[in-house]
Amino acid sequence: MSQYLTSNPSLIDFSQRSLYISAIAIAFNPTFWNTVARREYHHKTLTRLFNGNSQRACYALALTIFSLGLFRDALYERALRSQPTHPFLQGPLVPPIAYGLILLGNILVLSSTWALGITGTYLGDYFGILMDEPVTSFPFNVTGAPMYYGSTMSFLGTALLYARPAGVLLTLEVLVVYWVALGFEE
Fold it and tell me: Per 3-state DSSP, what percentage of the chain is helix, strand, and coil (rounded to 5)?
């Protein structure tokens, strides 16, 4: 497949540095938060930085993860803008599918954040902040990882909206990186 992609430069422009920067950011974020969370669990590094206040430490990590996500998304959008479009992704059905993926993806992400709260969403369990019971309502009755799959759907919807094959490739990276992250988190 890589030979096909590199021999057909009209699909993806591999000479664009922004493509690689976006790919690095996509891989970095879950690597970062899983590393920091595991370090917190074993050594209470952030809790000690916040004078023993695990709640504040968790909120600081939440703000950091959220900010890194915004930065990653901006790098993704920049990478897409520098890539060629493809006519197959510019058909009349593509925009409604793209908007549908973005909408459903955001519903999964936002509803899981609502169900878990900030500390449940942003690795509070690694800080010793536990929920009273597991969340089994929507969206967790649809998938065990609604934030990851919702985010992936939003990435794909954006790639389709921009009609960029490079976005589809980066979305595949998002999916693989999240699958690896799930292996560490479960």
Answer: 75, 0, 25
